[in-house]
Amino acid sequence: VVAIAASGAIAGSGNGCNFSGAAVLHGSVNVFDVTIKFNGGLCIFGTSTLTGVGFFDATTKTLYAVAPNASRTDGFLFLGNKP
Prior knowledge:
This protein is mostly beta strands.
């Protein structure tokens, strides 16, 4: 489950992993700078903070986000639809 507030604040959880972060508009298009902080527990990235980019496709109401870990050996990919 992921929630993104109008302010860009991100909060989510799944499979014993909680995370928070922010999506900040990058220019005047539907592209965002994304930062996610994992809160330990069962999170594969422990307590790491990952930074990357996101894109919202207004036609399909789909959010795409991707960010590598610090060593660039792994990362996350998120795809979500707005109801």
